[in-house]
Design brief:
- It comes from Actinomadura bangladeshensis.
- By secondary structure, the chain is α/β, with parallel strands linked by helices.
- Helix content is 32%, strand content 15%.
- The protein has two domains: 204 residues, Rossmann fold, CATH 3.40.50; 163 residues, Rossmann fold.
- Strands 3-4-2-5-6-1-7 form a seven-stranded parallel beta sheet, with helices on both faces. Strands 10-11-9-12-13-8-14 form a seven-stranded parallel beta sheet, sandwiched between helices. A two-stranded antiparallel sheet has the order 15-16.
- Strand 3, helix 6 and strand 4 form a beta-alpha-beta unit.
Length: 491
Amino acid sequence: MPATADEEQVPTFAELGIPPVLVNALERQGIEAPFPIQAASIPDVMAGQDVLGRGKTGSGKTLAFGLPLLTRLSGRKAAPKRPLALILVPTRELAQQVQTNLEPLGRGLGLRFKTVIGQTSMFKQIDALRRGVEVLVATPGRLKDLMRQGACDLSDIEITVLDEADHMADMGFLPDVTDILDAVKPGGQRLLFSATLDKDVDVLVRRYLNDPVTHAIGPVDEPVATMDHHLLLVAPKEKSAITAEIANREGRTILFARTKHGVDRLAKQLVQVGVRAAGLHGGKSQGLRTRTLAEFREGTISVLVATDVAARGIHVDDVTLVMHVDPPADSKDYMHRAGRTARAGERGTVVTLVLPHQVRSTSAMTRRAGINAPRVRVTTGDTELVKLTGARPPSGIPIEGPIIPERPRREGGRGRQGGGGRRRGPRTFDRGDGPRRRDGEGGRGEHRSYSGGDRRGGGPRTGAASHGNRRNGPYNGSRRDNNDARPARYN
């Protein structure tokens, strides 16, 4: 049957100039035709032009810059400590995702990769750079550390990619990003991919990109047609049970809670009622975060409970439902979270649990996001809840009490002890690779572990401290628990 006009307009990867070894590798992964942003961007990247790519999350940006980057570097060898290409990303999870997608393809071209991120061995990263790495995938903080130590020299970088530049700006990384770009080889190719171009990203574009070719695939703020949104109005006493019923649905599901403490509590309670769930937030070690994501991808666990750190770095196929257990702070966070489902043309559902006092603010937030999210009042076990989410009663003991307690944004802090003294509680630090350094992702509280002994001679303690906080309940040892998305200062 002859191809239609629309089909003739879509080039193949081979027609875009991608070498056969990469085309064959893509076909083995079931990738046979380029997405629109790939078809539009690859020829310009191959030609050595600076490119500004705009597109929604899940639009295929990694291969849009990755395939031509690998093609252009094919057969090249880097000198020790002097990589040839840099892919700069905002989060550890995204760095690992980029390497997972591109390293197997680059291996067929003889290209060596290394990911440099916080909370992983700096010694191994220095050793790999000393032996030579063609493609470096990095978060800003850890890369700055390596540069300061003389372990990495960017003066041979020919291709620089800023992936999810808007997220880097949101997370406060622009000073590090500009320092890194200033150290890159002058006149090299710059590729910037971002969902939005606010004033901070525009500064990067005007300062570092030379006459870029812009490829914007559809309005970036247009709602995804394959994504359904609903506001579920729930009574406070039923929020726990409804959460458990939705989490127990069939299919891969992500639940978002506002704080790290809330994530841990919710994940634990879901497991207790028979739901295969695990938590992910910036307070966990990188090894545990990596294992949790791997189990989620493999299906060992079906429910991931996460803070907003997951909204900025998780790319997992077949997530069919995203639930905001706690409504996000603003419309931008809503869209980041929602973008974990309905990826690459698949269908997905986004639901938000809304308590009575949250109705007005949550409705206003979805309107600002341009989302039509009908409000539906639901109770446990009703047919409408089952219809919208596939909820089903969990097999274990019902959860009692609120899963995510309503707390002020600033929680914990300096708990009052005894007569109200201001002495801070004991704490220990997970120093990762050594001294407290910039991490490249996550919140300031990520490096802290409040389970050890007091450095000043006090006895050890585990779990939440026993010292009460009169406003917020038990002191959990963190001055700020909702800061996963802010750049960490230390490893």
